[in-house]
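Researcher: Sequence recovery benchmark, item below. Answer with residues only.
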C-alpha cells in the first residue's frame, strides 16, 4: 500500500499493473527526451547570434512534422495494447460481484451457493492495534492467488467506483448497469483500495480490502462461509 512521502506508484501485484507501470516509465522517458530537446533548442537560440537571412528549411519542416507523429505512435501502440488486455476476460476461475451502497460494499461469490456478505469500514474506536485507520474492513474479499478473478461491478443507489491500485483495477459502479473487470493476484498479500467516485458525505469511509491466499486456504474459507 502507499506510504508517506511516496513519489511513485504502489508495488505491482498483478500482471496488468506491471504493464501499466512499464508504460508509465516508457511515457516518462519520451517526455524527458522531448523536454531535453526543447531545452537544448531554447539554449541554442539564446546563446547563438541571430541571423536575419532567409534559409530554405524544407528538411527542418519535414523533421518537425514527422517526428511528433512518430512520438505519438510510440505512445499509442503500447497504450492500446494494455487497454485491450485490461478489457479482455478469458475463462475466469472465479466470479465476484461487487455492489456499491451508501456507504459500504456488498459482495457475492456467484460460483458458490449463498456466499454473500457486506463489507463495512472498521471504526477507529474498534480498530485492532497495527491495522490501518480508514482502510480496514470487517469482512475482506478473499481470492485465490494466481487465479483470474472476474469482478462484476454495479451500484444500488449512486455512482461509486471499485478501485484497488496495486492490482491495477478501477471500475465505475453505476446503478442499473453491470461493468466488468478482472485481475490476477500474482502473490499472496492484502491489498487496499477505496471508492474512487465522490458518492456523498461518507465517500471517504467505504474502503476495499482484497486478501489473496493460496487455493487451499481459499477453499477452506469458502466452505466455512457457505456451510
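Model:
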Amino acid at each position: 500500500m502507499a506510504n508517506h512521502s511516496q513519489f511513485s506508484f504502489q508495488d505491482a501485484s498483478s500482471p496488468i499493473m506491471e504493464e501499466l507501470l512499464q508504460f508509465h516509465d516508457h511515457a516518462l522517458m519520451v517526455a524527458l527526451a522531448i523536454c531535453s530537446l526543447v531545452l537544448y533548442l531554447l539554449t541554442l537560440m539564446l546563446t547563438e547570434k541571430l541571423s536575419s537571412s532567409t534559409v530554405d528549411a524544407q528538411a527542418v519542416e519535414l523533421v518537425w512534422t514527422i517526428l511528433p507523429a512518430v512520438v505519438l505512435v510510440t505512445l499509442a501502440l503500447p497504450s492500446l495494447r494494455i487497454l485491450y488486455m485490461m478489457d479482455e476476460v478469458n475463462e475466469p476461475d472465479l466470479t465476484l460481484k461487487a455492489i456499491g451502497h451508501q456507504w459500504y460494499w456488498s459482495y457475492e461469490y456467484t460460483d458458490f451457493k449463498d456466499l454473500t456478505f457486506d463489507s463495512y469500514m472498521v471504526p477507529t474506536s474498534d480498530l485492532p492495534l497495527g491495522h490501518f485507520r480508514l482502510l480496514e474492513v470487517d469482512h475482506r474479499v478473499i481470492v485465490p492467488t494466481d487465479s483470474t478473478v472476474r469482478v462484476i461491478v454495479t451500484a444500488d443507489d449512486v455512482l461509486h467506483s471499485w478501485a484497488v491500485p496495486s492490482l491495477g483495477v478501477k471500475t465505475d459502479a453505476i446503478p442499473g448497469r453491470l461493468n466488468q473487470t478482472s485481475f490476477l493476484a500474482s502473490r499472496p498479500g492484502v491489498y487496499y483500495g477505496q471508492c474512487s467516485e465522490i458518492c456523498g458525505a461518507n465517500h471517504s469511509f467505504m474502503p476495499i480490502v482484497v486478501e489473496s491466499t493460496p487455493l487451499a486456504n481459499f477453499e477452506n474459507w469458502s466452505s466455512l462461509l457457505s456451510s
